Amino acid sequence: MIRSSIDLMLKAGAAALAKNFESRDPIASQREILARLVVTAAVTRFGRDHGFAELAGEPFDRLYAEFRRRVPIRTYADFWRDYFSAWQSDANGSQRLLLEDVTWPGRIPFFCETSGTTAPTKYIPFSREMFAANKRAALDLTACYLHRTPRSRLFQGKLLYMAGNTRLTDLGNGVQSGDMSGITLRHRPFYLRPFVAPGMAVSALPWEEKVVELAGLLLSDRSIRGISGVPPWIILLLQRVEEMGHRPIAELLPNLELIIHGGTSMKPYRREFDGLFPRRRPHFLEVLPSSEAFMAFQLPGEDRMRLVPHYGAFFEFIPIEDLDEGGTPAPDAPAVPLEAVETGRRYAVLLTTCAGLWRYHIGDTLRFTALSPHFIEFTGRDRFLDRFEEKVTQGEVEEAVARLNQLDGIEVREFMVGPDIGERRHLWVLAVGEMNERSDDVLGRHLDATLRSLNADYATFRSQGRIAGPRVVTVSGDVIYRWSKEVRGKLGGQSKIPHVDPTAEGEMVASLAAFADGFRPAGLPTASRNSAPRDG
């Protein structure tokens, strides 16, 4: 009775919140946010260094031009060198980090830890203002979902949140660090606790144990109506539910109505989701959160995400062709605000946020497909596959695997591609299902043909012999996760398998291929170790 009453109250308020969201002017929001951020941070060390007090009250055009002139584009390494490292210390073998009035007023209470692939862990500041902005984004998304799905019973039950590790590290002076999803789950508002599963005890378990407990929870608690997580981990969880329940997922979870997914493209996993839900599909909504800011989400009835520039972050965009060969912009690289973007172009994203990041290059790229609303597609990280100057994007790589999964007799569950420097070719490791009927050589031909059709530079280089045909290594579905756990030391939650090797010389994909050699299942059709599609 209480849940039904709350559900009615939520739906009553959802319409007003949804209409308010739809009526907001994205350009006006961005202009207001930049002016507010500059004024607020004028008292900080960063604000004094860049003369923010002099910019107060300026019209947007003049403010933005001067802001861009005074504040160079920075990477994390630049921020660490110029501002963060001076406030780091070690006490009794434990790291301490205290940012107070450095790049944002007051003390930063949280740091989101993001794993560096070739560098130490990054500590992304997460202020109380950013926490509040993220909650507003989540509230707007929920309101729009309830408003556009009037028969929803989502809040008559619970949302299963596949968070990362919820253990937080004490950095001293009341400051904590950890996985962003773990921070969010631990410090969620008290009034949401009855609507979110699992509890803290399960959330803190090691990943393999957590998946078993979550599957058991889904089977035993019919009030769970939604799941939020990264696509491959959601698939893994649902498959575990089927294994434990011995029936199709649609029969085992009849009340599941919503899957919220983000963190990596859905394209390579769509076929597996279709297989899990052959008839009645739950609603799928894609989100684009990051440790730096909440950037985009999808609304029911729309097939793409919208950029949502209302939540404490000012966006700038750099055309991808203006990045260097390592995917990094120059400090004065040509950037444009939201009002000047064009459809069809691929952009790297800069963020200025209410957590004290200023013109920060986050490493993600996107493409605008419409401007009213600002529909986008996430096109991956801006360290693309370019060791041989071929400029293959992560989006093209994921599209190639998605097309592979449309073929009969193949099911790619996870993958990674990177350069094989010595052989001047791409090395693909494909984690496949049990029913793989295709040889590595045939799979390589399909991937090669798709990339030729998608990328003119790649097609030219292949025809000129500047890049050899790809080598494919297939392994069983669990091997890539074993490698991630045993070699990378990362598994589950918000940790994702990089689809494009982010290392400079292909060290990561080579490590995976070497690890996989010891686990190739008997009878799996393969080509020889050095085989590759013939040129032509």
Automatic annotation (TrEMBL):
All copies of domain GH3 C-terminal, residue ranges: 396-500
Domain of life: Bacteria
Segments forming domain GH3 middle: 311-381
Name of this protein: GH3 auxin-responsive promoter family protein
